[in-house]
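Now produce a polypeptide, keeping tokens residue-aligned:
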Amino acid sequence: MRKERIITYKKSLELENSIYIDVRTNSEYQEATIPGAVNIELLNDQQRKKIGTIYKKQSPKKAKLKGVELVSPKIPALIAEVNELAKSYDNLIMFCARGGLRSKSLAEFSDLAGIEVYRLEGGYKNYRHYIMHKLANYKFKAKIAVLHGNTGVGKTYILKEMEKMGANIVDLEGIANHRGSAFGSIGLNQPYNQKYFESLLWQELKNKDQQDGVIFVEAESRRVGHSVIPEFFYKKMKAGDDLLIKAKMAKRVDNIYLEYIKDIETNKENFRERVLESLTAIKKYLIKKAGKKNYFKLLDLAEKSNFKKLTKILLAEYYDPMYEHSQAKIDNYKIKIEAENIKHAAQEIVNFYGI
């Protein structure tokens, strides 16, 4: 057997055409992983628990023997998966929770099959410490420009268009997998947790933070979905350029409807139930801002699937009063953009910054 190839995460970043292979259970992988990693599960949750119980109550040796018994039937399928990846990537980097037996086992099976792989030193735990250290000591090279504007003006759409035009953006809602409102998770999978959010944020900064450059973001509160924007990043946002995006009500309603249209058309009944749940969740705030009459009107519109009219009332009576107060605190917007046309608005910002 060849000498085992162990590599640190920092060193692994220098490898070209590489992929990380997370050999932990699928539930561990879903909770948080290295961005871009694929999951080749060595043991499932039940099997891992069984081995852990044997380890604690009997002995490490018996636990290892049980592991061999459980993994042996899977070896051909596991190696086939690794081999498929080897056809597309020059460097395969395996990791488990702490760089222990699980990644070591699959690495050795792969080596026996003639597939060279790396094993990540310290596993996911060391990777997580690396990310935490990087973010805790982060020094920006670029400045940040923040897009403000009432709900539905198209800030996210504008950012995406700007990215096509060569601007560096960080889509905070995208890396949180949440749209940042009471209705923000509708049509999306589970919002990402803090660990994965920070991993994705580091990835974005590593690739986009350039000396004397500009990173464009959308105005957000500290919490986006289940994630909290790190203090160093939030402070930079507060100290950055403020840009105001404006659009007429009809355009804003259309933007929001377009954002959810796939979910509406795919399963209108399920979408209606999610909207009703969200309205109920913010009932006391809606009544405080918009009054009981409007609250029950919103419920009725949701029941009738009249989502455009519902959106218009929500914007006018709930979201606009809430956000206009915070926007009024900013008295020095760098530019104010009319966003009736998303592409034109994006081009105007890009031109202003000479990108």
Q: What stands out?
A: The domain at 6-133 is CATH 3.40.250.10 (Oxidized Rhodanese; domain 1). The longest helix spans residues 307-328.
